[in-house]
Amino acid sequence: MRHEYRPPRRRSRLTRRGRLALFLGMLLATGALIAVPLLRGADEAAEKPRHLLVPEGRRAPEVYAAIDRVLGLPAGSAKAAAATAALDLPAEAKGNPEGFLFPATYPVTSRTTPAELLTAMVRTANEKLATKAVADGARAHGMTPYQTATLASIVEAEADSAADMGKVARVVHNRLARSMPLQMDSTLNYALNRHTVDTKLGETRIDSPFNTYRRQGLPPAPIDSPGLQAMAAAVAPTPGDWLYFVTVKPGDTRFSATYAAHRKHVAEFNRLRATADAGTRMVAGRAQQQPGARTD
């Protein structure tokens, strides 16, 4: 499955329609600014905190790098702290905080440590996954909190817009129910440590637990940090019988229940891309990243 990748982005996710409205109303009530216990003395109390923004969909290495930058630390400091901070992660995570570095805005001061920020992020992710709406929805689908975070991370990476999240989640659930490989490019990109809109046939054959072309079921871990809307979509997917989707152009993702219908949408995508590529070649010195898709 393919959506247009626009790295890195921050989507507006304050409104939704349909089944997710009730979930999001409950989840968003807690606010976006996460309080971290950082001010410990009179000097610090007088210091005006700066803020670290962690957008939805960031991978752990990207979050580590952002922490190092905002704290003015050498590269690798936050990653090293993650290995020793005794983070409150599910046993399934095996010490890997991917998917649990919750996207939000965190205050920082001159004495903030990477371990404090990481602890706050993981604590917040656990709180959101334990919210009644998410927890009840996950149980209804027979998912653990870790599986919920994993599925939500795929939704976060694959959906072209907030409005598509519920449908993308439904495709994942429908494929899981039919024991179909998920065939998500986002998981393959994670395995190859890249962000791209083009996937070659040979790459779909790589030996990786994150290659959802070769392996059935969810990948063994989340592939990014999902936000509230992705979590809500994961446990309350939009009703539908879709098994395929392709973003034909920005803002126009087509969902299909049959492969034949999907092929028609892919053909439309290829036609539009060919036109866009031809236009790009006519503009000397300029290159534009075009959306990509596969036919499977």
Keywords:
296 residues, mainly alpha, two-stranded antiparallel ribbon, two-stranded antiparallel sheet, 4 strands, 6% strand, globular, disordered C terminus
Word description of this protein:
This protein has one domain. The protein is built from 11 helices and 4 strands, in the order ααβααβααααααββα. By secondary structure, it is mainly α. Helices cover 42% and strands 6% of the residues. It starts with 19 loop residues before the first helix and ends in a 15-residue tail after the last helix. α1 packs across α10 (228-235) and α8 packs across α10 (228-235). It has helices at residues 20-27, 42-45, 60-71, 77-84, 114-130, 132-140, 145-158, 165-177, 185-191, 228-235, 259-281, and strands at residues 50-53, 105-108, 244-249, 252-256. β3 and β4 form a beta hairpin. Strands 1-2 form a two-stranded antiparallel ribbon. A two-stranded antiparallel ribbon has the order 3-4. Residues 3-22, 27-31 and 282-296 have low confidence and may be disordered.
